[in-house]
Structure formats: structure tokens, C-alpha cells
Amino acid sequence: MAQLQDQGPGAHSLLIFLLALFMLASPFTSWWMNLTAPWYFTYLLWLIVIGLTWVLARRLRRHVP
């Protein structure tokens, strides 16, 4: 039976960083900036990134001795 390996906080942090980079600094950005989105849309994206980071920090706090 295969065992799951704990990849540590670095793997999760890298995924959140890449997601934020994709949402906020890629060709995808020009697409959603051309939409008729409300003024707070960019702030909402940042809130999502901050929320994911907060969830990750809470989840990893349980693993620290």
C-alpha cells in the first residue's frame, strides 16, 4: 500500500505563489481587466490569495511541534 508523503510547507506555499502569479501577472490579467468587472475585483483577487495563505498557515501550524 502506498504511503502519502508530507511535502512540507514549501510545496503548498509554492502552489499559492504560482496561483497568485497566474491571476495577477500573466496574459490572463489582460483578459479579466477588459471585462466590465466592479472596481473592487482586483482587491477581491488579493483577498482570495490572502485567505488561501491564512488557511495554509492554520493548517501547517498543527504540524509544528
Quick recap of the structure?
With 65 residues, the chain is mostly helical. It has helices at 8-24, 27-33, 41-61.
Question: What report would you give on this structure?
Answer:
It is a single chain. The chain is mainly α. The protein contains three helices and no strands. It has helices at residues 8-24, 27-33, 41-61. Helix 1 (8-24) packs antiparallel against helix 3. The longest helix has 21 residues, at 41-61. The chain starts with 7 loop residues before the first helix and ends with a helix. The relative contact order is 0.14. The model has no long low-confidence stretch (mean pLDDT 75).
Rg, please?
16 Å
Low-pLDDT stretches are none
Helical fraction equals: 55-70%
How would you characterize the largest beta sheet? none
Please provide the ordered H/E string of secondary-structure elements. HHH
Return the structural class: mainly alpha
The average pLDDT score comes to: 75
Count up the helices. 3
Query: Quick one: overall form?
Result: elongated
Count of distinct strands: 0
Estimated share of beta-strand residues: under 5%
Distance between the termini: 28 Å
Comma- or semicolon-separated keywords:
single chain, mainly alpha, 69% helix
Which helices and strands occur, and which strands form pairs?
Elements: H1 8-24, H2 27-33, H3 41-61
Helix pairs in contact: 1-3
